Amino acid sequence: ACVRACLERLAPDAVAVAGYSEPVMRAAAQWAKSHQRPSILLLVTSAADRKRYWLKERVKGRLVRSLFDAIFLGGERHRVYAESLGFPADRIWQMQNVADNEHFATGAQAAREQGSALRERLGLPERHFLFVGRVAPEKNLRTLLEAYRRYRVQGGLWGLVLVGGGSEESALREWVATNGVPEVHWAGIQSYDNLPTYYGLASALVLP
Questions:
Q1: Would the N or C end of the chain have less CB density within 10 A of its end CB?
Q2: Of the candidates 132, 205, 122, 121, which has an alpha carbon nearest to the alpha carbon of residue 165?
Q3: Rounded to an integer, what distance in angstroms lies between the CA atom of residue 144 and that of residue 161?
Q4: Residue 178 is inside which H or E element, if any?
Q5: In sequence order, which residues have a C-beta less than 8 Å from that of residue 191 and are 6 or more positions away?
Q6: Which helix (H) or strand (E) is 123 found in, with range?
Q7: Threshold 0.85, pTM exceeds
Q8: How far apart are CA 49 and CA 58, in angstroms?
Q9: Which residue pairs from 116-123 have beta carbons closer than 8 angstroms and sit at least 24 positions apart in sequence?
Q10: Residues whose CB is less than 8 angstroms from the CB of residue 50 and which lie 6 or more positions away in sequence, other chains included
Q11: Position 96 confidence tier, pLDDT thresholds 50, 70, 90
């Protein structure tokens, strides 16, 4: 309801949606279709991301074809997956995944200059590992948390900061609490403007 109300107020000429698994994303695409506005899927999924089941993929293909007018994606593996869902090849555009290095470098340096004061304000350990991404099964956070648990048992002192949100967060929080893993900080979803701060204050980045 909130997404629809926001789109009604903004009345965009087109809607670009970063995925289709979350209800809020599907709601945005459905609004676009009901208002005869182009809906564009930003796809970063490939067939190798996880085990695929033919029936689920068939349903997914119908969903994607019914909700979206075009797909923008980052690489050839993403294109192959989009076509495997039955999406017309002439409505798929392959774009490059890019990062604004200056944005992150400048923001990270500004955060480091504030150092301890900024860490204290954000509730971050002085020395810590950092993960940034979706809290979802394919990101392998269960392995990261188990490795971190062993690291602490063996005398490690750094904390662990997780930036992001997703379907697995509740289960992982429960696992951390049940196993008494210390200094795991859940920073939640952060805006593009805030991300350089977390990168700048971290001691090491972990990509499990």
A1: N
A2: 132
A3: 11
A4: helix 169-178
A5: none
A6: none
A7: no
A8: 17
A9: 118/197, 118/201, 119/201, 122/187, 122/197, 122/201, 123/185
A10: 137, 138
A11: low
